[in-house]
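Human: Note C-alpha cell order:
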Amino acid sequence: MTASIYDFSVNNIQGKTVSLANFKDKVILIVNTASECGFTPQYKELEALYQKHQSQGLAVLGFPCNQFGEQEKGDNQAISSFCELNFGVTFPLFEKIEVNGANTAPLYAHLKQSAKGLLGSEAIKWNFTKFLVDRQGKVTQRFAPTTKPMAIEGEILKLL
C-alpha cells in the first residue's frame, strides 16, 4: 500500500513531534520556505490563503530549508520570530529540514515521488515549491516556486 502523508510525523518549530494524521480530512498546502529568498514575500499570500480558508478545512504547513543559496540560516526560534514579525504567520511551521539529497526528510521523499516536477524530475528546484494534498492525504499537485500562492486558490477551492 502506498503511504499517505498521514503516515508521517514531523517536528514542529518548537521541536515537538506532530503526526500529520492530525491534519486528516483537511486540504493541505505544504511549502518549503526560506527567510532570505526573493520568494519570501509569498509568506504573506500563504497566510492570507490560510486565514481565508482555514474554517473550510485548509491547512498550510511551512518547512524551512537552507539548501538553496543558504537563504534560511537562522535557528528554529529565529525563523519563527521572523515569520511572525514580518508576515504575521499563524499557520504551522516545522523544524528546518532537507528536501533534496541523502538527508531528505521522509515526508519530502514521499511528496517528490507522488508529484514529480518538470520533465518528471523529483528534485526540489528552489524555496517555496508547493504541494497540494487532498482531504484523503493524497498529493494531487506540485507548484513551482514562481507560482504565487493566490494563483492556486482555485485549485485549493476545488478540493475544499
